[in-house]
What we know:
Layout lengths: L7 E9 L5 H15 L4 E3 L4 E5 L1 H17 L5 E9 L8 H5 L5
Antiparallel strand pairs: 1-3, 1-4, 2-3
Helix pairs in contact: 1-2
Amino acid sequence: MSEKQPECSIAIQVLPKVEGEEVIRVVDEVIAYLKSSGLPVFVGPFETTVEGPFDQLMEMVKECQKICIRAGAPGVSSYVKIAYNPSVGVWSIDKKVTKHHQ
């Protein structure tokens, strides 16, 4: 492959313990944070995927929890999927989804 693959990819779904459409506001704050990283981000209807360096992504997972709390949620549950392969990398977001969004 000519293009360097990312070493890690995460998919995160945060479920802040708030009522009604307040969930959207809190989740939007998390998504804004993920996008501000400058890393490739793909927002889906149930989870957001980010790819990049393993250590940075693990810190971002931690920060997502704190963002929910600072945004007013008394608690948060999250589902996180991690693909990590430092020696050869993982498939990029583009490789996995571009053909489905043309």
